[in-house]
Amino acid sequence: MRIEDALLRAQQAAEPEVGRGQLATYIPSLASVDPGQFGMAIASCDGSVHVVGDADVRFSVQSITKVFTLAQVVAAEGEQIWTRVGREPSGNPFNSFLQLDQEAGRPRNPFINAGALVVTDRLQSLTGDASGALRDLMRRESGSDDVDIDAAVARSELEAGHRTFAMAHLLASYGNLEHPVDEVIGQYVAQCSLAMSCRELALAGLFLARDGVLSDGTQLLSPRETKRINAVMLTCGTYDSAGEFAYRVGLPAKSGVGGGILAVIPDRGVACVWSPALGSSGSSAAGLAALDAFTTYSDWTVF
Amino acid sequence: MRIEDALLRAQQAAEPEVGRGQLATYIPSLASVDPGQFGMAIASCDGSVHVVGDADVRFSVQSITKVFTLAQVVAAEGEQIWTRVGREPSGNPFNSFLQLDQEAGRPRNPFINAGALVVTDRLQSLTGDASGALRDLMRRESGSDDVDIDAAVARSELEAGHRTFAMAHLLASYGNLEHPVDEVIGQYVAQCSLAMSCRELALAGLFLARDGVLSDGTQLLSPRETKRINAVMLTCGTYDSAGEFAYRVGLPAKSGVGGGILAVIPDRGVACVWSPALGSSGSSAAGLAALDAFTTYSDWTVF
Amino acid sequence: MRIEDALLRAQQAAEPEVGRGQLATYIPSLASVDPGQFGMAIASCDGSVHVVGDADVRFSVQSITKVFTLAQVVAAEGEQIWTRVGREPSGNPFNSFLQLDQEAGRPRNPFINAGALVVTDRLQSLTGDASGALRDLMRRESGSDDVDIDAAVARSELEAGHRTFAMAHLLASYGNLEHPVDEVIGQYVAQCSLAMSCRELALAGLFLARDGVLSDGTQLLSPRETKRINAVMLTCGTYDSAGEFAYRVGLPAKSGVGGGILAVIPDRGVACVWSPALGSSGSSAAGLAALDAFTTYSDWTVF
Amino acid sequence: MRIEDALLRAQQAAEPEVGRGQLATYIPSLASVDPGQFGMAIASCDGSVHVVGDADVRFSVQSITKVFTLAQVVAAEGEQIWTRVGREPSGNPFNSFLQLDQEAGRPRNPFINAGALVVTDRLQSLTGDASGALRDLMRRESGSDDVDIDAAVARSELEAGHRTFAMAHLLASYGNLEHPVDEVIGQYVAQCSLAMSCRELALAGLFLARDGVLSDGTQLLSPRETKRINAVMLTCGTYDSAGEFAYRVGLPAKSGVGGGILAVIPDRGVACVWSPALGSSGSSAAGLAALDAFTTYSDWTVF
Question: What's its catalytic activity (chains A, B, C, D) (predicted)?
Answer without folding.
Answer: L-glutamine + H2O = L-glutamate + NH4(+)
